[in-house]
Amino acid sequence: MAAANVASKTTMQRFLDGVEKVGNMVPHPVVIFLILIGIVIVLSAILGAFGTAVTFEQINPETHAIETASTGIRSLLNVEGIRFMYSSLIPNFMSFTAVGLMIGAMIGAGVAEESGMVTALIRKLVIVSPRWALTYILAFVGILASIAADAGYLVLIPLAGVAYLAVGRHPLAGLALGFAAVAGAFTVNMLIKPIDAVLVEFTNDAARLVDPAASIGLASNVWFSIASVLFLTVVIAFITDRMIAPRLGEYKPDTSNGAVPDQGATLSAEESRGLRFALFGLLGLVVVFVLLTVPAGAPLRNPDTGELIGNSPFMNGLIALIMLVFLVTGWTFGIGAGTLRTLAEVIAAIEKSIKNMGGTIFLFFVLSQFVSYFTYTNIGTVMALSLSGVLQAANIGALPLLLGFIVVVAIIDLLLTGAIAKWAIFAPVFVPLLMKLGVEPEAVLAAYRVGDSPMNAITPLNAYFALVVGFAQKYDKSAGVGTIVSLMLPYVVWMFVLWTGLFAIWKALGLPWGL
Prior knowledge:
515 residues; mainly alpha
């Protein structure tokens, strides 16, 4: 039987198996980041000793003025560097927002999971959805989850695993699907996101270097974004069904590792009553938030502009809404289903959820030091500017330059994952350059969106990569970095190639990028 399974594997599946095997031979993620910290320290000392530096123009995030700046490699082995490493140990961890987001989300998610609401809700979704459509629904919702910033990583990805388990499919395929949707398409959405306002503002600042009257709006990429969401939904679902799921094969749950056994796509009377109670709880929460957001001068609107979507307390604190949705619906489900009735039981569920994150929190502590040291040394910034300088000097046509720009952004995304930080550097270089070649600023921003997203699913600097490894270990104790990389490589490669192709066709046909 085993021999037959091996023989039936395609060349690609055998290659990915090899990637997984090699990847899982690497040390524990904590050890990996400790090694990377050592490499950054040594490299910063060597490059700093040679005076490595670059001069460039960037946008000041506060004044939006174009400023000339010079950045050099800062050594971590000189007096200032040693002081920084010693004094920033705790501040680095405290300022690592992924920790707070994760704990906040898990307070609610822990209650929802312990009460049984998550499993019941997923099974309800399975009952009302055709089996073939589940993958597409999860991919679509995962892409739209970026409206809630990083909350999609904490909510959608584990839910996708549970959903696949509920229909008897391999939960790792569900996790991979969720990760690809949330991370690989992070910069596009059918709705205007808070990050769009910043990206558009930086684009306008750069465009005015060429044309003082140039300006694009928040919806300047909306048509391309909507098309990208629909296109990537199909791509992600196709890869999951045709590449990932066949390679993983049948899932045989091991209850000893804490995996949730498949309970079938049926609901008990208690679960149905619990879902009704959860709906009542959700409606009550909606009423509260309507009162906090809809009236003029409502507390969660921007106190200066009155806007709700964009830079407002509501959008800036959206993780609180996510937490409350799961907390309220999880508890009300528990009351209806008889699984969580008292406040003491709710608190116990939260404590259990937080306790299970001990290893992840320690990993985040080490990861926060690496990210801080890497940022301090300016190694990523110098590499980004050096690559952009090479591309700028290539003297090629507009479309090839745009495609080359996408490639450079993708490469840099392995080192600098922040979409805003990269665009602050790239915008004043490429927006004016391409405008002089007759390319509209909207096209440059759209190209940036394509290059900035797919690599998020395999870069170790994605703060949530390690968290996804932890999700996978819930279903497979042997899962490691290699497991996730091997699962995500097909998504990254095909999303990058096909999405870039969509961009090229869109540009060649002269289709409008947005409003």
